[in-house]
Specification:
The chain has 85 residues and is an alpha+beta fold. The protein contains four helices and five strands, in the order βαβαββαβα. The chain has one domain (3-75). The N and C termini lie far apart (42 Å).
Length: 85
């Protein structure tokens, strides 16, 4: 069963993993998670599998890698700041 998770819920999913974790281990553990993005969705395991990293030392390490692999429009309009106005 696929678990739909909004991007802001990613940290909670990654905290459940045991670190350090290999890329393959993270792919296996995240296989049932689909991230809901501002525009569209992406399978978390597919995203992690694209990483060049072999091992992730912590939740922050893996979360940073996932954010770096997300498409540019994943969190909303590019170059827009909600603090402006």
């Amino acid at each position: 069963m696929v678990q739909d998770v909004k991007l802001n819920g990613l940290e909670a999913v990654l905290e459940d993993l045991e670190y350090p974790i290999s890329r393959d281990g993270a792919v296996d553990q995240c296989g049932d998670v689909r991230l809901i993005l501002a525009e569209g969705e992406v399978d978390l395991a597919t995203l992690v599998d694209r990483s060049n990293g072999e091992t992730f030392q912590s939740t922050d390490d893996l979360q940073t890698e996932v954010f770096n692999l997300l498409p540019r429009n994943a969190v909303g309009e590019p170059f827009q700041s909600e603090g402006e106005g």
